[in-house]
Design brief:
eight-stranded mixed sheet, iron ion binding, binds fe (iii) ion, Urease, subunit C, domain 1, 37% helix, binds N-(iminomethyl)-L-glutamic acid, 2 domains
Length: 402
């Protein structure tokens, strides 16, 4: 792509990542950046001279950012879905060696190429629904080699489709069977071998943990964060999903980019996130799939001004849902986010949850990752669950759909 390629949209209703702009706008991109954003009433046609016309009307949003997924995995867990419908809980299945561990077996058994082939259509589904950035976690390998294998697959996915992939090492996701009864030894492996190896190969952009009674304690997760810090890697946490252990507050003390799930987060935890500038990542797909009843403390997050992101949590167990715009709807219907909050959660606040600046927003100088939707108002994206509305998807200034 030439660096000076320029595209012009006229009469756009723009959601800039945080708000809907009050009047129709003209948007011009130059190479991979947004060059001009100006109200139509100030737009002088001479500004558009020599610039390719990319369209007129509709809603423009930043490209969607799915800031929490587990897209790379072997097998699937339809059997567990059936068991849960018969009454077994997610935690019971996990304690009996199913759940995450059943995906670990399938993922260990798969080659890099097999994992890549399995993940590609899932990633394609996210892209077809407007995603331009997708975070992908490891966490189903649980050996140094298998975790690195997953991260390599994640990186390769970004070479296959026009989407930016951000990788996260989630070695502390579950205790592998070979460490049964000695979780501290497994945490030592994560800290002393996995994190250094992922860091030295440049395979991880961040480090995540699962802080929960069925996973790792607050102390153990803190050791993982200290190791990540030594290697200059930012951190995030799956915390307060099934109980309130204080994992989010501990993560916040370590300057976490985000605390994710947080159904059981209390007000003190909310304040800790605010003080640290961490993002609260809301995962309505897992809440819906597990038929949870405890809702995240949305009102307290709002009151304390904690930025909220929304993500698919796409994974084979708790959220086999591969449609970002569905999450906009679920965040509103299940958690009563406003459509504006939900959309900010998949754009500006999602970028923040990944530590990215210049993404997830429509402003001059920002990255030209954009979606143009065949709708009248941004709120329609959360209101209706409907495919076929994405008219154009622009990745780094290059239209890839439409
Ligand atoms: O984000 N909470 C833990 N980890 C994933 C679930 C992974 C799985 O069930 O395979 C989550 O929900
Ligand atoms: Fe997750």
């Amino acid at each position: 792509m030439s660096d000076t390629k320029r595209l012009l949209w006229r009469d756009m209703t723009v959601f800039d990542g945080l708000h809907e702009l009050p009047e129709p706008m003209a948007v011009i991109t130059r190479g991979s950046r947004i060059d001009t954003l100006c109200p139509m009433r100030e737009f002088d046609e001479s500004l558009g001279q020599g610039i390719r016309d990319a369209g007129r009307g509709g809603v423009m949003t930043p490209g969607l950012i799915d800031c929490h997924t587990h897209l790379v995995f072997g097998g699937n867990r339809a059997d567990e879905f059936e068991k849960r419908l018969e009454g077994a809980s997610y935690a019971e299945i996990a304690k009996a060696g199913g759940g995450i561990l059943s995906t670990v077996h399938a993922t260990r058994a798969a080659s890099e190429d097999e994992l890549l082939a399995a993940a590609l259509p899932r990633l394609q589904a996210l892209v077809d629904d407007g995603a331009t950035t997708v975070e992908i976690k490891s966490g189903y390998g649980l050996t140094v080699e298998d975790e690195l294998k997953m991260l390599r697959v994640a990186r390769r996915l970004g070479e296959r489709l026009s989407v930016r992939i951000v990788t996260t090492l989630l070695g502390a996701h579950a205790l592998p069977p070979e460490y049964e009864g000695d979780s501290d030894a497994y945490i030592a492996l994560v800290c002393d071998e996995m994190i250094p190896a992922a860091a030295s190969e440049g395979l991880a952009d961040a480090v995540d943990v699962f802080c929960e009674t069925i996973a790792f304690s607050v102390d153990q997760c803190e050791r993982v964060f200290q190791a990540a810090e030594k290697h200059g890697l930012p951190i995030k946490a799956h915390a307060e999903q099934l109980s309130n252990l204080g994992g989010s507050a501990m993560a916040a003390r370590h300057g976490a980019l985000s605390a994710d799930h947080i159904e059981y987060l209390d007000e003190q935890g909310v304040i800790a996130l605010r003080d640290a500038g961490s993002v609260a990542v809301i995962l309505p797909g897992a809440f819906h799939t597990l038929r949870e009843t405890q809702r995240p403390p949305i009102e307290a997050l709002r009151r304390h001004g904690v930025p909220m992101a929304v993500a698919t949590d796409a994974n084979p167990g708790s959220s086999p849902l591969f449609q970002p715009t569905l999450m906009l709807n679920l965040a509103c219907t299940l958690f009563r986010l406003t459509p504006r909050e939900a959309l900010a959660g998949m754009t500006a606040n999602a970028a923040r949850a990944l530590g990215q600046t210049g993404f997830g927003c429509i402003e001059e100088g920002a990255n030209a990752d954009l979606c143009v939707w065949d709708i009248q108002r941004p709120a329609e994206l959360a209101y209706a669950v409907q495919s076929g509305r994405l008219r154009q998807r622009v990745f780094q200034g290059e239209p890839t759909h439409g």
